[in-house]
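assembly run, all chains below
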Amino acid sequence: MSDHPFKHSRWPASRRRDFLRQAAALAGAVALGPAETHAGDVPADATPSGTPSAPAAPAPFSGYEYFSPQEAAFVEALVNIMCPADAYTPNGVDCGLAIFFDRQLAGPFGQGKGRYLRGPWNAGPPQMGLQSPLTPAQFFSEGLRAANALSLSRHGKSFDQLEAAQAEGLLHEFESGGAASPAAVALADWFNALVYPLFVQACFADPLYGGNHDKVFWKLIGYPGLPATHALDMVQYRGKPYPGAASPKSIADFS
Amino acid sequence: MNQPTKLPSRSVVIVGGGLTAALVARQLTVQGVQTLVLERGTDRRDSAADRLPSQRDELRWAVHQGLMQDWSVQPYSLRHGRDEPSYPIRWMSAFLPGEGLGGAASHWNGHCWRWSRYDPVLRSHLEARYGKQAIPADMPLADWGVTYERLEPYHDLFEKLFGISGQAGNLRGRKLPGGNPFEAPRQHPYPQPPLQSLEAGLMFAEAAQRLGYHPFPQPGANSSGAYLNPDGQRLGACQYCGHCERFVCEAQAKATPELLLYPVLMKRPGFELRLRAHVLGVTYDAAARRVSGVRYVDLRDGREYEQPADVVVLGAFTMTNTRLLLLDRIGKPYDAAETSGVVGRNFCYQTCSGVELFFERRWINPFLAAGSTGTVIDDLNNDNFDHTGLGFLGGGSISTTVYNGRPIGSRLLPEGTPRWGTAWKAANARWYAHSLLLSAQGSCYPHRENFLDLDPDYTDAYGQPLLRMTFDFRDNELRMSEWVTRKMGEIAQSMLPDHMSAVEGIKPPFDTRVYQTTHVTGGTPMGTDPAHSVVSPHLQHWDAQNLFVVGASVYPHNSGYNPTGPLAALALRLGDELVDYTRRPRWLG
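ok done. output:
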């Protein structure tokens, strides 16, 4: 009911920080700190009139619980491609998106809470949902490995080392099912049923979970968040802009 | 597992602590009949689920299904046809059974309908209007054996207990402006005025009226004001916060069993509620055509108990009611190949479709909304229009579906929008407050190849077979959906949106990955003929005199309305009839 299948893309590639290099500079540290926003990353054709540049606030969390350094580098590259720094938001890492992925995969969701994981196991039609014995975290890591393998065979580089346009191209291959992948870890399933929903949740969930840092995506769309006691608002602002949309409140603001 | 511990007997034991159980228990205990309710979940009052700020957590409650049945314990399996293998649905998104006190009526959106006057006599009605040949041989429609008029006082009582907000359209046969002209006649108006209409509803109403339709506000359990019900229980006024469906209402403004019914029951002598009691089976003596009680696991100590009872009522969700009968072979399982047997037959869903509209210059503000702030037309629903020559039966209610602006699940974007990147962000910024969904909630009539049985390969966490759905949208529903959706598209177009999604009826196969509706019905259909129904018009099992079944599982077909109203009326009537039955047990005729 929300998003529709991708049809076309038309924005220029944005520059991307080299996170492996940064990791190397951290001299073996597992934790990768969030990077600051690069104002220069804003694509030329993406500045809507009247939209203020999003503020760059420091991300509240750093350090990964689930990801290995290589996985972290992949995911940071991924979220910075899917969410480049532009007039709307800082880049994906600075929005906390990589942290969101990490925490979700480390937590109950990633560990398969609420998911039926008994055999027998048979590949079924897509309408039956994923029929994989892997937990979401295991599936994420397996898919990431397969995606990196494809990146290496295609471009001679791991995903996080790709030029933005190359990475973008690979994501579209995953999305459309065009990318060759092991049958047990179909990259189309991996991307569309796991990576993409996590990306959307990372952007729009309450900042409590590490993504949507500083409520940046709520500000972007004008979702006012909490406390949402709108009995009077819904009459007064019916058909009109709602002033509270400019300064959303999250769970932390009431905790 | 060790031998179950046998507990002292109770007069009436009800399986499931949801809406129907509470309504049955209300009628029983007021007359002093001892009643025990067994609920597998817990009581969520005064927990993170119903308190600010945690209640407003979309990820926890809506995305991760924090209030729903635990699929790791008990999922369902599915095949689209009898000749296909089945697959367990490892994470179900299409429909959402609840868990915990209040059941699915705890996390419901609040839509509360009386069905059409002809729904309980649908087969007779359609035969009279179109002739016997109009109903296809593979569509086992059946009269319920009870009339709307018999249920009307119970509808009225339920609406008062739950403080339903709405605009009457047919008061004792007199059509009232602003209400639903197709409404079955009611003796009394709704106890509360309707909720506020949204901008989306005003736009839709204007367009629908211009095309000759009859828009009216959605009747709902989201309280339009402060309300005191006949049992002395209170509802607060709805705050239009957009956290109704998939959530517990934090403002105590959405009528639910745990808010309005169980607190009253807890104070009554003779009522007992056992939480974390997962029922495994009903003990059945086929020769005597009686049940002697139920077996359950107490999830607090992990041990199995045998609970004897004079009367057992299955008041669980549609699927569990059916499964318990199949597990203990109470009644002959339905066999689609032979078209024999009854348990599991007439399994229905609903046939839903939607059209998304985008208006550059209109402020829809979807976050200023509540679960029942829809504006609806009933003109194209069920048999409210002439089906002669159309090639299908049934129809759908069409409404604005703007119930919340929750940003993970309810954002709309025009087709063709890139799925990530700057252009994706730009589209989100541009359309979030300026888009709305129209949807058709379509009927789903029974088909001989749509049914429930036990899965031969998959078991739940207790080692019991999963309930298996054999289901798909069949020709009648596909044709109906195509037609109704086209009509909805005409209304949408006349609203002059800047963008609009493709106008398409539902397409098979049934997709478990996409939320459609939680309204699964049938499996234990009621009726007058034991060869084609599981329970009698009094909801008494044909093969077990002291076993009764209540809920949407007894519907022989599914209508283009939410199912709550009639099942609540049936539960209240069952409670009254059980008072009499416990005094004089017999086959009710």
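The first helix of chain B runs from residue 19 to 30.

Chain B has one domain: 5-583.

not gonna interpret more than that til we talk
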